[in-house]
Every structure is written in structure tokens, then in C-alpha cells.
Design goal:
Length: 393
């Protein structure tokens, strides 16, 4: 293929469920840039082969064709986004600051999405030692924190445990459970750590000031240090990631890709899309393969802000897709847009779902599907693919 450059845009959680009128935020929005790509490029569905759950780290790695026996678990991917030293045999966790009421009922899984004082709270509980295990804690992004367990005698810890996140509110939080006998040491020490942390957080002055206290921790995803072949070793392409989300920092480090966080970039609705676009155009001058990740679609779904999600799709199309199309030559650059999973804003329970996601690819040598509008229903009329990397590199 003669094309020199590849731009892959991952719209985190953009596909959504239909409302009573059969509309989704994507189908209801005005997005002529995406429609141009669909009319002049190849559309279809990408089956990421999720089993029971769908998540960003797994989805991005699968889109990149890099989800294999070396997958380390999301806890390790997230830990790579921090400055915490990670050693062989450690166990890493992605976790949330969350909120319990006076009856120990979970009332907010994200502590109100309020970052006030969370870095200081993380520092307060960093370095605790229990049962000859040190707990290193770092603030990641928003309500998220990273926990790395390290045995002081350097013996390995097992990651065969189940976290305590119920993925819903109005319930009590269960203890960490070992999945196998060799996970009992990890689970026991982690439960002791969490009991100590709950007491420390409840008494901390910062939580006296916060409207919604961050007084507990939900252990969500586990992982352990693992090495894998780099993106360049796999595809012979110099690549970078442009994002703000900690998961994408970890993916970039795991695969040896460059990482760029543009000024004003966040994982929320207020992210600076203009700066992300400018960074993307600059990166295409230096790299063979550029991955641009935009997260706010997913956040708006989790917060049940369906109208705001529709409006954000329109802003994204205007400030990212159309601006990039105005500045690049599609004879020299392939542009692909897809998502890592569905994120259902009408769901009562957990919002991610596992069905195949829409995609569009446009550029020299890519055949034309010719549809007029890019959305979930139209792309579903076309073929289901197992991989898109074969079309991109």
C-alpha cells in the first residue's frame, strides 16, 4: 500500500443504545465529517471478541492487534501511567476513590468526580506496610488511583483475586476474595489495608471540606508486570498516542509508543479538542502511525448525559474530524475512526456492552461503501471484521 501515514481515532464509548424513537446520540447528531469518511470509505463492524465485559485497555489493545498471551491486566496498564516503581512479582490495581454513607452503604462510585484533595489523600495512604507488604499509592486521573503491592522479601504475590467494586450503588462493599489458594496472602493483606484506609480517610481534614467525601476505595482491576513485543516490532511503524486518559498512557508505555498529552486535554467534556487536533497534525509529520483517543463520549454515557453526548459528537466532528480532513491529503494518509466498546447511556446497570463496534476507514486504496450517514444502524448493514489493522498497516 502506497499510503505513508495512518491516523486511527478511537472514540471511547461513542456507540450507544437506541431510545424509544430509534435514535442514538450518534444518529441524532450532525456530523458531516464522519459522514464524508463513510461515503468515501469502508464501513463495517469490528468484533473485539469480548467475553463477559468490555473495557478500554482491552478494547484498545484488541483494535491495535496487540491483545495476546502477554496481556498483563488493566491494573498494570494503569500503573504504567504513574511514577510508581513496579518490580517483578508485584501486583497492581486500578482503583476508585468512592463514597460511603454513615451506614456503610456505597452511594457514589466516583466520589462525585471531584478531584479536590485527592492527590493529598493518595499521598496520605501511600507507603503503608502490612504483613511484610508495602502499598504504594499514586493518584492517576480524576477519582482514579493506582495501588502497587510489593513484598518486602521480594517474593512474588499472586494476582488471582477478585476486586470489591459492586459496579452499582445502594449496596455494601464486599471484601476482596481470593480466586485460588495462592491468592489468599494478597487478598488478606489488601483487606487489612482497606480497613486501615477507610479509617484514615474518614478522619482526614480534606474529607471534612469536600461536599462528597472520598472515604473508601473500590478495587477494580488487577494486573502484574509483563513484557510484550512493541508496536514497532509488530508492525515496523514508528507510532505515538495522543490522549489524556491514564489508560492510554499505560498502553503507550506497554507497547513502546510515544505519548503526547496536549495542553488542556482531559478525559471529560471540557477537553481541549482544538489542541488535540493540532497535536495530531503535528504528530503526523513525525510518526508513521498516530492514535488519537477521545474519552468524553464514555464519561457522558456513564453520567447519563445523553443530550450532552450528542452535542459533544457534533463538537468532535467540527473541531477534530473536519479540521483534520481540511489539512491532510487522503492520498497520503489513511484515516480510521472506531470505538473500543458501546457505552449505553440508557442502561440502569453497568454501561459498557460487548457487541461489535462501528468503524470507518478512508484513504487511498480503501474501497468505497458509499453510505450517506455514519451511525450504528447504517454500519450494521455491512460486514463484521475481526481486525482492522490489516487494512491500516
Amino acid at each position: 500500500m502506497a499510503t505513508l501515514k495512518t491516523l486511527l481515532i478511537i472514540c471511547d464509548g461513542m456507540p450507544d443504545s437506541e431510545d424509544g424513537d430509534g435514535n442514538t446520540p450518534l444518529s441524532a447528531s450532525y456530523h458531516p465529517g464522519l459522514d464524508f469518511l463513510a461515503k468515501n470509505g469502508l464501513v463495517g463492524l469490528l468484533d473485539l471478541k469480548y467475553e463477559k465485559t468490555a473495557d478500554t485497555d482491552e478494547g484498545v489493545l484488541k483494535i491495535l492487534g496487540c491483545y495476546d498471551d502477554s496481556y498483563p491486566g488493566r491494573g498494570y496498564i494503569e500503573a504504567l501511567s504513574t511514577d510508581i516503581e513496579i518490580q517483578k512479582g508485584d501486583v497492581c490495581f486500578r482503583a476508585n476513590f468512592a463514597t460511603l454513607d454513615t451506614d456503610n452503604i456505597l452511594i457514589d462510585r466516583r466520589a462525585g468526580r471531584d478531584e479536590t484533595g485527592l492527590k493529598e489523600l493518595s499521598e496520605t495512604i501511600d507507603g503503608i506496610e502490612i504483613d511484610n507488604i508495602r502499598f504504594n499509592v499514586g493518584h492517576a486521573l480524576g477519582h482514579r488511583i493506582i495501588i502497587v503491592m510489593h513484598r518486602l522479601d521480594n517474593k512474588p504475590l499472586s494476582w488471582n483475586i477478585e476486586g470489591n467494586d459492586p459496579k452499582k450503588t445502594g449496596v455494601t462493599i464486599k471484601q476482596i476474595r481470593a480466586k485460588t489458594p495462592n491468592g489468599k496472602i494478597t487478598a488478606s493483606a489488601l483487606n487489612k489495608f482497606l480497613r486501615k484506609v477507610n479509617k484514615t480517610l474518614a478522619e482526614h481534614p480534606i474529607n471534612k471540606k469536600r461536599k462528597i467525601p472520598a472515604n473508601t476505595i473500590l478495587i477494580r482491576n488487577v494486573g502484574h508486570p509483563t513484557k510484550t513485543k512493541s508496536f514497532e516490532q509488530r508492525y515496523y511503524k514508528k507510532a505515538c498516542v495522543i490522549a489524556a486518559h491514564s489508560t492510554l498512557v499505560g498502553v503507550a508505555k506497554f507497547l513502546g509508543m510515544g505519548f503526547i498529552k496536549p495542553s488542556g486535554a482531559t478525559s471529560l467534556e471540557d477537553t481541549n479538542l482544538n489542541e488535540k487536533t493540532n497535536a495530531t497534525l503535528e504528530a503526523l509529520q513525525k510518526y508513521d502511525f498516530v492514535l488519537l483517543h477521545v474519552n468524553a463520549f464514555d464519561t457522558l454515557s456513564h453520567d447519563k448525559k445523553r443530550d450532552e453526548k450528542t452535542a459533544f459528537i457534533e463538537r468532535f466532528d467540527q473541531l477534530v474530524v473536519r479540521k483534520i480532513l481540511d489539512r491532510i491529503d487522503l492520498n497520503k494518509t489513511i484515516v480510521a475512526v472506531t470505538s473500543d466498546h458501546y457505552s449505553n447511556s440508557l442502561a440502569k446497570g453497568y454501561e459498557h456492552s460487548i457487541e461489535p463496534v462501528p468503524f470507518v476507514i478512508c484513504g487511498d486504496g480503501i474501497k468505497n461503501s458509499g453510505i450517506e450517514k455514519y451511525d450504528e444502524k447504517n454500519t450494521a448493514k455491512f460486514r463484521v471484521y475481526k481486525s482492522i489493522m490489516d487494512l491500516l498497516v
